[in-house]
Design brief:
With 275 residues, this protein is α+β, with helices and mostly antiparallel strands. The chain is built from two helices and 19 strands. It has two domains: 101 residues, chitin-binding protein cbp21 (Coagulation Factor XIII, Chain A, domain 1, Distorted Sandwich), CATH 2.70.50; 103 residues, Immunoglobulin-like (Sandwich), CATH 2.60.40. Strands 10, 12, 13, 16, 17, 18 and 19 form a seven-stranded mixed sheet that branches. Strands 2-8-7-4-5 form a five-stranded mixed sheet. Strand 4 and strand 5 form a beta hairpin.
């Protein structure tokens, strides 16, 4: 009898060990999204937790949490669907401050849980970055109703940006970020050289990005390129549509020359006519 009792105890003990091993292995095999060091943003980020199919039975709910560095764990959402292998929840990450040190956790509970804090499986990812601050995009050059020669430099305020693109009548030109990212002094520039744009009227717009978020600049209309004006290289001439440029720099000498030539022509014509 004692021998049988001993065998029963040994079997029960072995079963307990097996269950412990299964539980431990489950901890390592639950896949959680976001990953370590991921970047999250937006009002509909999808949290995902995947548990092996062999361990999905009796799962009654899955809870997602976030924890800031040095802060308290906060519940994000609960999925109460039973016995799934993949659990998801949409999360509005805009409630978070922008930082690089969040921990995202998932906790599985089954029907045998002794309390609401009794979880059979947990897993977490660390170093998660929240980035919901959009970069600034505000064009400073060119200006509307302004005429430019070639080799002029466009510029915009690009605070909190790591990249920028200029668009001229929907053609893209990759700009250069000047200034340290995050310093609040970043600008985006691009030099339009001879050959980039032919003479004519254009609409200028731009967009900036921080790698996660994109901001569109308001477009600047009626920007005119005139590379034929003497002395226009690297300069700009303000004008109003429907008027001429007689008083613009580099243009006055042309106008004067034309007038002189015309007067000489009239004088010669008059002299020949008298003969």
């Amino acid at each position: 009898m004692k021998k049988r009792t001993m065998i029963v105890f040994m079997v029960l003990f072995a079963l307990m060990l097996v269950q412990g091993v299964i539980a431990s292995s489950t901890l390592a095999t639950v896949r959680l999204t976001p990953d370590n060091s991921a970047v999250i943003s937006g009002n509909a980020y999808v949290l995902t937790a995947v548990i092996p199919v062999t361990h999905k039975d009796n799962i009654t709910n899955v809870s997602f949490y976030y924890t800031p560095a040095g802060g308290a764990e906060t519940l994000i959402a609960v999925n109460n669907t039973n016995n799934l292998t993949t659990y998801t929840k949409k999360w509005d990450t805009q409630v978070l401050f922008d930082t690089t040190s969040y921990t995202i956790s998932v906790k599985f509970q089954n029907a045998t849980a002794a309390s609401s804090t009794d979880f059979v499986v947990t897993n977490s990812t660390t170093g998660v970055t929240s980035d919901n601050t959009k970069p600034i995009c505000s064009i400073t050059t060119p200006s509307a109703n302004t005429e430019y020669g070639y080799d002029f430099i466009t510029s915009l305020n690009a605070y909190n940006s790591t990249g920028c693109t200029w668009k001229v009548n929907n053609d893209g030109y990759t700009g250069t970020i000047v200034g340290l990212a995050g310093s609040g002094t970043e600008t985006c520039t691009y030099t339009f050289t001879e050959g980039d744009l032919s003479e004519g009227s254009y609409s200028f717009s731009a967009e900036t990005t921080d790698g996660t978020n994109v901001t569109q600049c308001s477009s600047i209309e009626y920007v005119r390129m005139d590379t034929s004006i003497p002395g226009s290289r690297g300069k700009f001439l303000t004008y109003t549509f429907g008027t001429n440029l007689e008083n613009a720099p580099g243009q006055k000498s042309n106008t004067t020359g034309i007038v002189v030539i015309a007067l000489i022509g009239i004088g010669l014509w008059y002299a020949f006519k008298k003969k």
